[in-house]
Amino acid sequence: MTGTAGESREAEVIPITRARTFGEPVSEETPDAPVGGGDDQRSAELLAFLRRRVTGEYEVDEFGFDPELTDRVLLELIRPLYRHWFRTEAVGLHNVPDDSGALIVANHSGTLPLDGLMLQVALHDEHPARRALRLLGADLVYRLPVLGHLSRKTGHTLACREDADRLLRKGELVGVFPEGFKGVGKPFSDRYRLQRFGRGGFVASAIRAGVPIVPCAIVGAEEIYPKIGDLRLLARVFGLPYLPVTPLFPWFGILGLVPLPSKWMISFGEPIRTDEFDPADADDPMLVLNLTDQVRETVQQQLDELRLQRGHAFPPFF
After folding, report:
1. Under DSSP, is residue 228 helix (H, G, I), strand (E, B) or coil?
2. What is the pLDDT of residues 123-165, one digit of tens each?
């Protein structure tokens, strides 16, 4: 789960045990995968994977990102949603750099933040360089014991200046949803209307690192859980920003959590360069706000165009 990039406290350090770091050699006892194919090879690869998990011979970085677990388990679980349920199409991937840092700025919607996960699959599976996306999430995510730890395992981290700057300077692909909970939790009547983009902290991070900002539009998430109401009292009790009412939830119980099979499209626009600025310009509030408005207007224009390109949300039914 992901939320907004914005003003958040610095991420706590989660200890990673029994795991080697990047660059540490793998034990020579780890068997090579067999040359042959078929079920025997898959079984051998699975056994080798399980052995590495047990012995701790796998890689994590300073943020707790576990690329093997992410690819082999976590992304594998959500790929059917991406490919078959939402029938997602990703366009404009050539605008995302192959091996250098960049900031992906996308609209946020859907009541539950599945758009962040689908964006992660698109860049990992569809981009020629199979890029890992490091999403910046709200501190609410990291206050939840299981979800917070799982988010770090998949490469996500807290939406704070320190983490964003470090990732971008390392050449990572960082993703942010500046609308935050106001975007993902907006009512269905306001679908595809961008909310406020905050104070532009993401723009300042891009300027300091000198990396391009890639505007991204996601169409399809608005229809998976049409929010028609909000149980505000219960939301306050549970410490949540909102507790949605949809045509299926809470009336159908857990079945109401099944997302509707809308048609998705993800578009990556032409990068907006920041390397023409001096890093000190990140402290200029007017420059940052102007660039933030430019990014927001670009994403809104992409959304409008992409909705026309997609057509009906539930083809061929409607």
Report:
1. coil
2. 999 999 999 999 998 877 777 777 878 888 998 898 889 999 9
